[in-house]
Amino acid sequence: MVLHRSQPAPPVxxxxxxxxxxxxxxxxxALRRLALQDGITxxxxxxxxxxxxxxxxxxxIADEVRERxxxxxxxxxxxxxxxxxxxxxxxxxxxxxxxxxxxxxVINDLVQLSRLxxxxxxxxxxxxxxxxxxxxxxxxxxxxxxxxGFEFDVSIPDLPAIETDxxxxxxxxDNLLSxxxxxxxxxxxxxxxxxxxxxxxxxxPLRFICVSVSxxxxxxxxxxxxxxxxxxxxxxxxxxxFRLAISRRMARLLGGDLTLETQSGRGSTFTLWLPDSPPxxxxxxxxxxxxxxxxxx
Length: 297
Description:
alpha+beta, five-stranded mixed sheet, two-stranded antiparallel ribbon, 7 strands
């Protein structure tokens, strides 16, 4: 810092020099802060661009693959109508159809995951009685898997109505119940419970409506990574799944969260936390800030 005097003045003393030094340090800190803020802004913009590019790439590939798989399904259906088929041929055709549908389902999940990352999912809040919704979904699952060989333990009391997106909540609960059924062995038990819990933080909603889905499956070893889509692909090379990653993003979009408690060999408990009031974040909010922070790091 260079100081110029416009008129004669007394000599500079030690106190003046200290003040000038303090001003210089403050100016340097302000300049570094501006530079850092500019870098963060650029990194966030770059992260947004990367996420948008990823979405366009995934959507384009998905459209192309779905189109070709649609043609494959049509050929399978034609084979199914070609004259008399023996039991073995019918079984092969049925498995081919199931495999194609499974691939289409994975592609749809991947597109939805990319859409959530870009904030393209708009919420439509309405009054929802979470207890009634959860009990109805459990009944539907009980009817569909009634002969598999495990039981449901349901503990869902009357709950206050909340403002949230019913379709998003239904999707998350459907994923959690399907996941519990997939990993619960014959003779096991699935427990679905709900309760009102106070918020953990002083800011934000005062309380949450929590729905927990527990199973008696093998548990999850890599608890910290179970919601990562890359981890899901690594662990399920034959049939990769993205639905837990989708469910957590959806829960956070609703202003809540999706948490996991697990113990190897003793099962897992997934808990959906939903605020008793709509989230303050605008609809369509995504994890772009987290993506940008990752780029900065």
